[in-house]
């Protein structure tokens, strides 16, 4: 496993150029990509799908916390969580550019072990999350499936849909980006109709209602749902190395546009539905928007909401699969994974091994009965973000003179801690409200990750010693002529 000393010169520039007053930001991608860069609008929609993908699955915030708290949550949470996460990501991703994204800057801050562990946590958090989307897509359109498909075993249908969705990712990142635009627009059109038709029926007093007073609030579920719908801003960092042109200027603008898009597409339908519908909180579960469409617009229109949810699931799956595959590619380039993980398609330049591995693991995980998938994904994500935010602060201390093309406008250490104080508190809370099953799964995954790291390190060390031994033996042969003399040198 590569250490910072054995990395390419572009990587060691951070540590060796201490005499210079200003250090240039390094590049970490060691392979060239044939694909074109993402244009601005496709990038915005890729970020949008990595964060939320629309108002689907936001209904449970009303059921667990009440109407007023749900609205307040979608008003405030982007300010206290999404903006700090996006700003930190924009600074680090534009400074440490490469396919590894968050793995790179954690590696630079704390070394290869923590870089690998963060990558391991984030990857499994992503693929577990990925595994839920093909199933959700099928559940939404199941009443509309042809008889032949509807009689197939459920898991077989999920496996087939996962493979079909994954094949599209092989075409290339720009194609996925442009497809995300169409998917984003089409999946949201039903909510424009719902919001407009709901206007005559809206009672604004319902927006400040707490729902049934006798019903106990489920705060862990509320915050898990809110967090799940508004996080993952750092996922795009794995695409910056080769997918984004001029990241220092493009990323902040793309984050702003994607943030406004997420904010409006989540909040407007929620206000319309709460204002026009019954406030029986038992009804407000994931998928309730189909009932909203049925009662506000009409029976036939509910089908369009199902189709919209299906399209949104495809968009989320495609964007997150792109991040997963490029993350594995980046970890291979850093020496944190075997070089096989960095294999690319000769035609499109896509990391086909990363796509294949992510899809296969996603299919295997989908066979497991995870009743607390959202909590599991959130706790894994929160653990990694605690380390990422710590890496951000430490890199400001460790490399104060490093040129940062985009920089969060806070220079003092106490100011950085103050900015990230609330996000740190949110992460600690999300981590602490997991269930025993969630903690057990995470503990087993972490132990497996640590064993994998040191096993690869020992294996690579033995391979290197074996190579040196063979070279030494070859150099002992006098009849090798010039080659033997060269090896002796």
Automatic annotation (TrEMBL):
<dbReference type="InterPro" id="IPR002293">
    <property type="entry name" value="AA/rel_permease1"/>
</dbReference>
<feature type="transmembrane region" description="Helical">
    <location>
        <begin position="102"/>
        <end position="124"/>
    </location>
</feature>
<dbReference type="Pfam" id="PF13520">
    <property type="entry name" value="AA_permease_2"/>
</dbReference>
<keyword id="KW-0812">Transmembrane</keyword>
<dbReference type="GO" id="GO:0005886">
    <property type="term" value="C:plasma membrane"/>
</dbReference>
<keyword id="KW-1003">Cell membrane</keyword>
<keyword id="KW-0472">Membrane</keyword>
<dbReference type="GO" id="GO:0015293">
    <property type="term" value="F:symporter activity"/>
</dbReference>
<feature type="transmembrane region" description="Helical">
    <location>
        <begin position="178"/>
        <end position="202"/>
    </location>
</feature>
<keyword id="KW-0813">Transport</keyword>
<feature type="transmembrane region" description="Helical">
    <location>
        <begin position="152"/>
        <end position="171"/>
    </location>
</feature>
<comment type="similarity">
    <text>Belongs to the amino acid-polyamine-organocation (APC) superfamily. Polyamine:cation symporter (PHS) (TC 2.A.3.12) family.</text>
</comment>
<feature type="transmembrane region" description="Helical">
    <location>
        <begin position="376"/>
        <end position="395"/>
    </location>
</feature>
<feature type="transmembrane region" description="Helical">
    <location>
        <begin position="437"/>
        <end position="456"/>
    </location>
</feature>
<feature type="region of interest" description="Disordered">
    <location>
        <begin position="1"/>
        <end position="21"/>
    </location>
</feature>
<feature type="transmembrane region" description="Helical">
    <location>
        <begin position="415"/>
        <end position="431"/>
    </location>
</feature>
<dbReference type="InterPro" id="IPR044566">
    <property type="entry name" value="RMV1-like"/>
</dbReference>
<feature type="transmembrane region" description="Helical">
    <location>
        <begin position="254"/>
        <end position="274"/>
    </location>
</feature>
<feature type="compositionally biased region" description="Polar residues">
    <location>
        <begin position="1"/>
        <end position="10"/>
    </location>
</feature>
<feature type="transmembrane region" description="Helical">
    <location>
        <begin position="68"/>
        <end position="90"/>
    </location>
</feature>
<keyword id="KW-1133">Transmembrane helix</keyword>
<feature type="transmembrane region" description="Helical">
    <location>
        <begin position="38"/>
        <end position="56"/>
    </location>
</feature>
<feature type="transmembrane region" description="Helical">
    <location>
        <begin position="352"/>
        <end position="370"/>
    </location>
</feature>
<dbReference type="GO" id="GO:0015203">
    <property type="term" value="F:polyamine transmembrane transporter activity"/>
</dbReference>
<protein>
    <recommendedName>
        <fullName>Amino acid permease/ SLC12A domain-containing protein</fullName>
    </recommendedName>
</protein>
<keyword id="KW-0769">Symport</keyword>
